[in-house]
Amino acid sequence: MKSSHLITKEEILKLYKPIDSKAHKGTQGHAVIIAGSYGKIGAAVLASKSCLKSGCGLVTTFIPKCGYQILQISIPEVMTVTDENTNFITNIHLPLIPQAVGIGPGIGKELGTQKALFEFLRVNKAPLVLDADALNIISENLSWLELVPEDTILTPHPKELERLIGKWNSEAEKFQKTIAFSEKYKVIIVMKGAPTFIINRTSVYENTTGNAALATAGSGDTLTGILTSLLAQGYEPKYASKIGVYLHGLTADLALPKTGYESFTASTIIKYLGKAFLELEN
Ligand SMILES: NC(=O)C1=CN([C@@H]2O[C@H](COP(=O)(O)OP(=O)(O)OC[C@H]3O[C@@H](n4cnc5c(N)ncnc54)[C@H](OP(=O)(O)O)[C@@H]3O)[C@@H](O)[C@H]2O)[C@@H](O)CC1
Ligand SMILES: Nc1ncnc2c1ncn2[C@@H]1O[C@H](COP(=O)(O)OP(=O)(O)O)[C@@H](O)[C@H]1O
Ligand SMILES: [Mg+2]
């Protein structure tokens, strides 16, 4: 297997940019989260809340109509734009030019959603995070990756990775195929797992934070929100991916003594984001 570089606190401290005292919401980036379908609006809530709580100034979330009240009541700080359709996304229209977009958590694979994703990828110019069902749809339409901005961040868990690159027979082959995929499509792959690796062309980075408390529904959805927020704030994708993965894992390391493994949930990740960022302040 190819040797990897460790993502350590020392490295993250060099990449992290503290918030300027003259900052206002307009300078902190406007992020868009496109997520959710009937029964999975929670994915949109988790991604949007973690996005907002990772420092970007404004968050707009695009959801099917059924999620409108849920989202507005769960997170009043987040603006909401709804699809014409009730239960799933069919036509992505944004009344703004976003600084970054995260798309995929909980969107499902309805034909209408597949078409909406293709149309969105055709017109989108903003730095992008692709997760969950966006990856599952793209796995069956790999040529769509030619439409995405260079250095788009893909965040597959092992099953989503298999759908993208095909089966592997060994760890070495998994890395070899993921590297080849990253090179071919000029994308950054956050290979989620225990630990998470980031593959950027032939470079492999291994995260040093995180623990099994993260093995809980929605923890990947929060990572999508964090990464999208960092991109919206102007971090280059190669740095946003490292900082985001590091902070996401750090929330679990900081929370574990208080929550134990069992009671830790994706909402705990969001709760501990503040403490994780404060670790970068010294
Ligand atoms: N509250 C909400 O609204 C939530 C909404 N959510 C949304 O739901 C949608 C479906 O997402 P999903 O990931 O559950 O389904 P899917 O892609 O079929 O993968 C499941 C299979 O993958 C595997 N697998 C996964 N991790 C693995 C690992 N570490 N290591 C090894 N294998 C691993 C495992 O396969 P197995 O081992 O069982 O063969 C498992 O059965 C998606 O849009 C998501 O955003 C969720 O975020 C939850 C909260
Ligand atoms: N045992 C573990 N140790 C460290 N991190 C883990 C562990 N289990 C899960 N994670 C992390 O939790 C997240 C799970 O993402 P994902 O499977 O997409 O969840 P969901 O789709 O439910 O939001 C990933 O970031 C993964 O690295
Ligand atoms: Mg996921």
From TrEMBL:
<feature type="binding site">
    <location>
        <position position="43"/>
    </location>
    <ligand>
        <name>(6S)-NADPHX</name>
    </ligand>
</feature>
<dbReference type="InterPro" id="IPR029056">
    <property type="entry name" value="Ribokinase-like"/>
</dbReference>
<keyword id="KW-0067">ATP-binding</keyword>
<feature type="binding site">
    <location>
        <begin position="192"/>
        <end position="196"/>
    </location>
    <ligand>
        <name>AMP</name>
    </ligand>
</feature>
<keyword id="KW-0521">NADP</keyword>
<feature type="binding site">
    <location>
        <position position="157"/>
    </location>
    <ligand>
        <name>(6S)-NADPHX</name>
    </ligand>
</feature>
<keyword id="KW-0547">Nucleotide-binding</keyword>
<comment type="subunit">
    <text>Homotetramer.</text>
</comment>
<feature type="binding site">
    <location>
        <position position="221"/>
    </location>
    <ligand>
        <name>(6S)-NADPHX</name>
    </ligand>
</feature>
<keyword id="KW-0520">NAD</keyword>
<dbReference type="InterPro" id="IPR000631">
    <property type="entry name" value="CARKD"/>
</dbReference>
<feature type="domain" description="YjeF C-terminal">
    <location>
        <begin position="8"/>
        <end position="280"/>
    </location>
</feature>
<feature type="binding site">
    <location>
        <position position="106"/>
    </location>
    <ligand>
        <name>(6S)-NADPHX</name>
    </ligand>
</feature>
<dbReference type="Pfam" id="PF01256">
    <property type="entry name" value="Carb_kinase"/>
</dbReference>
<feature type="binding site">
    <location>
        <position position="220"/>
    </location>
    <ligand>
        <name>AMP</name>
    </ligand>
</feature>
<comment type="similarity">
    <text>Belongs to the NnrD/CARKD family.</text>
</comment>
<dbReference type="InterPro" id="IPR017953">
    <property type="entry name" value="Carbohydrate_kinase_pred_CS"/>
</dbReference>
<protein>
    <recommendedName>
        <fullName>ADP-dependent (S)-NAD(P)H-hydrate dehydratase</fullName>
        <ecNumber>4.2.1.136</ecNumber>
    </recommendedName>
</protein>
<comment type="function">
    <text>Catalyzes the dehydration of the S-form of NAD(P)HX at the expense of ADP, which is converted to AMP. Together with NAD(P)HX epimerase, which catalyzes the epimerization of the S- and R-forms, the enzyme allows the repair of both epimers of NAD(P)HX, a damaged form of NAD(P)H that is a result of enzymatic or heat-dependent hydration.</text>
</comment>
<keyword id="KW-0456">Lyase</keyword>
